[in-house]
Write a structure and sequence with these properties.
This protein is 37% helix and 20% strand. By secondary structure, the chain is α/β, with parallel strands linked by helices. It has two domains: 4-319, Rossmann fold; 346-494, 2-Layer Sandwich (Alpha-D-Glucose-1,6-Bisphosphate, Chain A, domain 4). The strands form five sheets. It has a seven-stranded parallel sheet with strand order 3-2-1-4-5-6-11, sandwiched between helices. Helix 1 crosses helix 7, helix 3 packs across helix 4 and helix 4 (102-119) runs parallel beside helix 5 (140-153). The longest helix has 29 residues, at 466-494. The protein is globular and about 65 Å long. The structure holds NADP nicotinamide-adenine-dinucleotide phosphate. NADP nicotinamide-adenine-dinucleotide phosphate binds next to helix 1, strand 5 and helix 6. NADP nicotinamide-adenine-dinucleotide phosphate binds at residues 26-33, 52, 71-73, 91-94, 109, 128-130, 145, 164, 167, 172-174, 326, 329-332. The chain crosses the membrane at residues 471-488. InterPro entries: ComplexI_NDUFA9_subunit, DUF2867, NAD(P)-bd_dom_sf, NmrA-like.
Length: 495
């Protein structure tokens, strides 16, 4: 159960109605869904969470919720997810599939969803989509969000559509994109199209509208624009960010209409995946401002200003309390998502490093779990950074993704260019590489008792792709020996 101070909806003017029946949250592993589930549970709702793959981490994360595995691209699987459901939230988003695939995947998902919901007698759908004026040219991303709304509405199940622009909160894509641009550019380059207006909304207000809509019958089957207190230009928003971050940098205006170099610059400077950066920046060209404020009368509360939303995001970061982050969700068919346990046999290329320590397993494991992010890799950080830059230049995720939290880890969290594949308290941390490599790689830390001591082992597994993959392994082995031995000693020292 969440602490009340962590909940966004404690002051929501609507009343919980858990008697309506079971609520299905889709996209629960994503940024928005991950924040919605605890709020619903805390308000007494029976919640079913839809995920695309079974994992013990889901049970640990949502002990009060029912978990169902289904994929919106597979209509049959949705039918079991919808059994006995009163209302379902549609928070599915395929942007990470990249520009060529996300639009068709999102439309197919929404068609399957509509049909399965209708067949199962679902009473309501609540969809969080994007703001934008259909009479103006829209980016493929904004167009696709509207297409999803149209598809969902074609069925017999009433759909509530909430349309939001930029969402500001700790871990949100927009917040991290703009924050990194402001922090990392020597001067803040403002393209002419950053003069477009938007109406950013804080993540807490988005969640309040999502929950409030469920609890307000007047919202059934209607569409609402949701926004924060301010309508401002992206330029003004970046100035507020610079001010709050204490970044006293000149803002330089560019009248050039070229989009591509700016997008590449943003991709290089921010940890956000390239397809998302691209889509967000394309969306900046469109004015995204609420066309009506009806929702304010139906679910009355004072939304946050842009400054307040940014400040809250910064405080959450400072308190190491980022509950969900854009990096949580990524496509399951991503070629780098293959798990070590899914391989028929362990990779032949393996190297391990061991040391014995008198320190207890808990302290050693705590030190293991501090690696990466702001803490760095304890030693030879320059080498990890160079690898990260090379990765980003090759179109990979780079090292700048950091971590959701500097003190806690859960399965599926990212640590720079790694992702946590397995975590066994005080025993094992298994990381899967998401860097661009001619092969697949894993890094495993194990702690096990040995006589009176604890044995700390670091094992690197590598499955090469062809001869280039093998050359890579042998070429970097001497460096890995230095780096991994050094890392192990540092972990022991900090344990
Ligand atoms: N974040 C924002 O700034 C923002 C702004 C305005 C509107 N919105 C809207 O809010 C909604 C949620 O956004 P988000 O930022 O939370 O997205 P997100 O973090 O990218 O999460 C997307 C979710 O969709 C799930 N998903 C993707 N394909 C699926 C499929 N075929 N079947 C089932 N689940 C699938 C993912 O599950 P896996 O973990 O299995 O991949 C993940 O849980 C979207 O409709 C978006 O348009 C977001």
């Amino acid at each position: 159960m969440s602490d009340i101070s962590d909940l966004f909806c404690y002051d929501l003017p609507t009343s919980p109605q858990p008697e309506i029946g079971k609520i299905l949250v889709t996209g629960a592993t994503g940024y928005i869904g991950g924040r919605l589930v605890p709020e619903l549970v805390a308000r007494g709702y029976k919640v079913r969470v839809m995920v695309r793959s079974q994992s013990p981490v889901h049970v640990e994360r949502w002990p009060e919720a029912e978990i169902v595995v289904a994929d919106a691209l597979n209509q049959e699987s949705l039918k079991s997810a919808f059994k006995d459901i009163h209302t379902t939230y549609y928070l599915i988003h395929s942007l990470l599939l990249g520009p060529k695939r996300f639009e068709s995947a999102d439309v197919t998902a929404s068609i399957n969803f509509r049909k399965a919901a209708e067949e199962r007698g679902v009473r309501r759908i609540i969809y969080l989509g994007g703001l934008g004026d259909v009479r103006t040219p829209l980016s493929p991303h904004l167009r696709s969000r509207m297409e999803v709304a149209r598809e969902l509405k074609k069925g017999g199940v009433p759909v509530t559509i909430l349309r939001a622009a930029v969402i500001l909160g700790s871990g949100s894509t927009s917040y991290e994109l703009f924050k990194n641009l402001v922090k990392k550019m020597p001067f803040v380059l403002i393209p002419y199209w950053a003069k477009t207006e938007c109406q950013p909304i804080g993540i807490r207000d988005v969640i309040k509208y999502l929950v409030g809509s469920l609890e307000t019958p007047e919202t059934v089957g209607r569409s609402f624009d949701i926004g924060g207190k301010d309508v401002l230009t992206y330029e003004k928003m970046m100035k507020i960010l610079a001010d709050l971050l204490g970044q006293k940098k000149p803002f330089i205006y560019s009248s050039l209409s070229v989009f591509t170099p700016y997008a590449y610059l943003a991709i290089a400077l921010t940890p956000v995946p390239a397809p998302i950066v691209w889509s967000l920046l394309e969306g900046i060209k469109s004015r995204v401002v609420c066309q009506s404020d009806h929702i304010r009368k139906i679910i009355p509360f004072e939304p946050l200003s842009c400054r307040e939303a940014i400040l809250r995001a910064m405080i959450q970061e400072e308190q190491d309390n980022v509950r969900t982050r854009w990096s949580d969700a990524y496509p399951r068919d991503y070629s780098l998502a293959v798990k070590l346990q899914d391989l028929k046999r362990l990779p032949k290329f393996e190297v391990s490093y061991t040391l014995l320590s008198q320190k207890d397993a808990g302290s050693l494991f705590k030190a293991v779990c501090m690696i990466g992010g702001n803490e760095g890799w304890f030693i030879n950080n320059w080498a990890w950074r160079i690898r990260g830059i090379a990765d980003r230049l090759l179109g990979g995720v780079g090292i700048a993704r950091g971590r959701r939290s500097s003190s806690t880890l859960r399965i599926n969290d990212v640590i720079d260019f790694w992702r946590v594949e397995d975590l066994k308290h005080n025993r094992r941390l298994l990381l899967r590489s998401e860097m661009i490599l001619p092969g697949k790689a894993w890094l495993e830390f194990n702690i096990d008792p040995k006589n009176e001591n604890n044995r700390l082992t670091l094992r690197a597994y590598y499955k090469p792709h062809g001869s280039l993959g093998r050359i890579y392994w042998y070429m970097f082995l001497p460096f890995h020996n230095i780096i991994f031995n050094g890392l192990l000693k540092q972990i022991e020292r900090r344990g």
